[in-house]
Design a protein that fits this description.
The protein has 336 residues and is α/β, with parallel strands linked by helices. It is built from 14 helices and 10 strands. It has 2 domains: 6-110 and 208-335, D-Maltodextrin-Binding Protein, domain 2, CATH 3.40.190.10; 113-204, D-Maltodextrin-Binding Protein, domain 2 (3-Layer(aba) Sandwich), CATH 3.40.190.120. The strands form 2 sheets. Strands 2-1-3-10-4 form a 5-stranded mixed sheet. α6 (145-152) links the parallel β6 (134-136) and β7 (159-161). The relative contact order is 0.18.
Length: 336
């Protein structure tokens, strides 16, 4: 073998074989648990997986869908998954319970929680609901219900149990119920043939973050590159899902959740886009995933004033801004 042949072989090893070896070593396995069965509300994560965006960031991501009876926070705390989808209240609960986890990004700037009423019943605005029957779950009696009591003067005797069935609402035209912007209004239109009145709580002052990305403080401290890669790839996936062609992400959603229909996926995505669930407010200046100290402070104070958290709770331990609010995302939606 002459010197020229040896040189060529060396070049092949350095520039062809060696990079693939490095990438294989650098690729990290990551498990994300979602907060419910696969749906459009998880679209950006599935889009990042389907389009190879996670792979581009040297991540081998597995998405495990949640659902009835699955305690995803317990899986996160037990170390069975690396990231979990949560919200402002859950992150504050981590602090209150001295559990070492926190939020590293907020995909939803607006919580999709809504109150739904029948048309032509004088229940078009939330302020019209005072003193009237409202179907509310036990969980939401300690989330948005204290906000409604404080702002609108609602009282606990208005509460009627909500068992996640639309039938009581459909049978009583005077009734009002909780719901999710991207779900119940669609079901009511499909099953009952009418468009309900939908009041988005986020447009009426209830402003927690939703679809936050939660992870352990240990990972944040010891592997910040992993956290940054996962956050950036997820953000890029959400830009693609909301502003690009969502078909690839939707295919994976339907693979995980075969009962999901194209019509519901399209409806949910359109509502998220139209109502600014993912892209509004701070995201216009700082990109999808944005969080601010002031938003966290105001939500904490709202919940604290209702007696849900102690005065001494250090709410700033619930989150970190180190992985979001990056200038590179400004105007990124125009790419699509």
């Amino acid at each position: 073998m002459n010197l020229e042949d040896l040189r060529k072989i060396t070049i092949v090893i350095i520039f062809v074989i060696f990079p693939y070896t490095i990438n294989a070593e650098d690729t990290q396995k990551v498990i994300l648990s979602t907060n419910w069965l696969a749906q459009a509300e998880h679209g950006g994560f599935y889009q990042a997986l389907a389009e190879g965006i996670y792979k581009k960031y040297n991540l081998d991501v597995e998405i495990r869908q949640g659902g009835p009876g699955i305690n995803t926070k317990a899986l996160l705390v037990a170390g069975k998954v690396d990231f979990n989808i949560g919200g402002s209240a859950g992150a504050l609960n981590f602090v209150n319970g001295e559990v070492p986890f926190k939020a590293v990004a907020a995909i939803f700037q607006k919580d999709p929680q809504v109150l739904i009423s029948h048309p032509n019943q004088g229940n078009d605005k939330i302020e019209n609901f005072k003193g009237k029957k409202i179907l509310i779950s036990k969980y939401n009696q300690v989330t948005f219900w204290p906000f409604l009591k404080a702002k609108y003067g609602f009282t606990d005797d208005q509460i009627k149990p909500y068992n996640f069935s639309l039938q009581p609402f459909l049978e009583d035209k005077t009734s009002i119920q909780q719901g999710y912007l991207t779900s119940e209004p669609y079901s009511i239109l499909s099953k009952a043939g009418f468009q309900p009145v939908v009041n988005l709580l986020a447009d009426n002052g209830y402003m927690p973050y939703a679809t936050t990305i939660e992870t352990s403080i240990e990972k944040i401290q010891n592997n910040p590159k992993l956290i940054q890669n996962f956050v950036d790839a997820s953000i890029e996936g959400w830009y693609s899902y909301i502003y690009g062609n969502p078909e690839l992400g939707n295919q994976l959603i339907k693979k995980d959740n075969p009962e999901m229909s194209n019509d519901l996926l399209n409806y949910a995505r359109d509502e998220m886009k139209k109502r600014g669930i993912v892209f509004s407010g701070d995201t216009e200046k700082m990109g999808i995933g944005a969080m601010t100290d002031s938003r966290w402070k105001s939500f904490f104070e709202l919940m604290r004033d209702q007696g849900l958290y102690p005065e001494t709770l250090d709410y700033k331990k619930a989150y970190t801004l180190n992985f979001v609010n990056n200038d590179k995302w400004i105007g990124y939606e125009n790419k699509y």
